[in-house]
Each structure stands twice: as C-alpha cells, then as structure tokens.
Amino acid sequence: MTETGTGNGTVTDTVADAFIEVDRVEKVFDVRRRTGFLKRERRQVRAVDALSFTVARGEMVGYIGPNGAGKSTTIKMLTGILTPSGGRLRVAGIDPARERTRLAHRIGVVFGQRTTLWWDLPLIDSYRLAHRMYRIPDARYRENLDRLVELLDLGALLDVPVRQLSLGQRMRGDIAAALLHDPEVLYLDEPTIGLDVVSKARVREFLRGLRDERGTTVLLTTHDLQDIEQLCSRVMVIDHGRLMYDGPLAGLHEAGESERTLVLDLERELPPVDAPPPARVVRVEGPRQWLAFPASASAAPLVARLAAEYPLVDLSVREPDIEAVIARMYEERASA
Fold this sequence. Notes:
Blueprint: E1 2-6, E2 9-13, E3 18-36, E4 39-56, E5 60-64, H1 71-79, E6 86-91, H2 100-104, E7 107-111, H3 123-133, H4 138-151, H5 167-179, E8 185-189, H6 197-214, E9 217-221, H7 225-231, E10 234-239, E11 242-247, H8 249-256, E12 259-266, E13 280-285, E14 288-294, H9 300-309, E15 312-318, H10 322-335
Parallel strand pairs: 5-9, 5-10, 7-8, 8-9
Antiparallel strand pairs: 1-2, 3-4, 3-6, 10-11, 12-14, 12-15, 13-14
C-alpha cells in the first residue's frame, strides 16, 4: 500500500490500482539574472520538490495552490512536455518523458490560458486535424464529435474561426478537442478561468457527466474552489513545490480554519443581526451586512434562520480565498 497525504487529510491507494504515480518527483530550473554590467548570476529554482501522490483510475482530483506553486509544472511533466530532474513518474504504466508519443494517445490536456485550436481556421478544422493526428476511426470520430457538439452546445460554432469565439466558447471548443480521441486521463489547467457564470455552469455540468458516464481520470487545477466543490471528492494542495495537503475539501477548510462570507441585503438599515455562533457579523454598511462562518459548515441553517427573523432583499455566499487558506496552514505549522 502507498499512503499519500498530510496529517490533516490522508488518501490511501493501492499502487497496483494507481493510474497516475508520482514518486518523489523534482523539477529544478536554472535561472540566469543580470547582476551588473556584463555580469550574470546563475541560480537554481526548485519548482517541484520531492512530490509524491497517486491517482486511481476514474478518480477526479482537484490540484490547487497559489500562483507559482508548481501546479502547471507538474501537469507538464505528467504529459511529457517537461522532463523531471529527479524521481519517478508513470501514467497508465508509461514514462511520459520517454514515451511521449505513445502517451499522447491516452491523455487529453486543456490549458485554460492557451488554446490548442487553430486560431484563424473554423473550429471544425481543428477537429478534423485531431481526427487525422490521432488516427481516430471514422465512425468513432463522428460519434464522438456529434456527442461533444451536443453536450457542449457547439453546433452553431463549428464554422466560426476560432479567433472570433468568446473565451467561454473557445474553452468549450478546447475541451471537445481534448476528448475526441477518447483519452483515459484528462488534465485540466484552469478550465474555467475568465468564464462567466453560465459558461462555468455548462463546463462543470459536462465534466460531471464525463466522470459519471465515462469514468475518465481527471486532474483539475483551478483557483476557483467552487470547481473543486462541485466536481471533486479529493483535493491536493501544493505550495513551493511540496504537497501540503491530500484529502477531502472539508478537511482542507478545517486544517486552514477557513471561513465563507454570507452577504445580506436587508430592506433597511438595522443593527448587526443576531447570528447564531459560530457565525458572526464582521462588517455593516447601511442595509448590507457581512457575516463570517466556518467554510466546512452548511450555509442553509444560517440562511433559514436569518430569513425568518429579518427582512431580507437578497443574499450571496462568497467562498474563501485559497491563498488565505494556505497562508493559515503555514501559520499553524510555524507555531506548532
């Protein structure tokens, strides 16, 4: 048995059942910077540091952390784009760096800030290229294309040049392109970045169906905790190249003592509402009040009580910032 995780949350997998295996992987970059006239200093930056985890076949895992934590570097090593400086990687039993072409037929990748689609060509032309590049059988290609076009609402966009698509439309187009060849594992790097609420909901709904119907293994990196809450039962937190947490999202909130914020809009200006502990009012501006409550707790009982006792006009719930959660975890470790 291989056990991965921290004291705050542990996930145990049998190595034989692991689809993705990361064993003490490191990635070190040589960086040169100018220190004076005609002088440069060379130093090493450790982007990933002794990282170990396993992901079972069919599992959907959130992989989160602040900017520069090492998330994208990990994804690039798992796809074979980067070669590890040390340690061992296996995806479906394949070493990504040594057998990148062979692995490419078994994985799909979506980078939220970069597109794999042909910028000046109609969307359908990118799919036709994938058809040839991956040597997808004609019948399977047509079946997959029809299914993806329907599920992702791409029918009216197939003849539109990619450069004319909105960000949400292009993102859905990228996801379809990554899935045409029936990959066994899908890497999603910020797939909902910059999307509006409707586009985010559509992408999340599609990914839930992919998980439930196809059993595709998914590794999802995102700054949006709602992506994790709605799609993943397990979350891994990486910072400074190290795995800080591996377990359920509720355990992460408990480890970082994170809080959500309930924003109330009342009919008129009132004194701070009488919130049941552990919820508390943290700010009041006219008829609007902000209440903090533990992120691991449900908002429903709190909302129900306040709605029964106060004249509400509107309300919203704001999720905790992942950087703040990680900072709190660091503080706790430093003081321990």
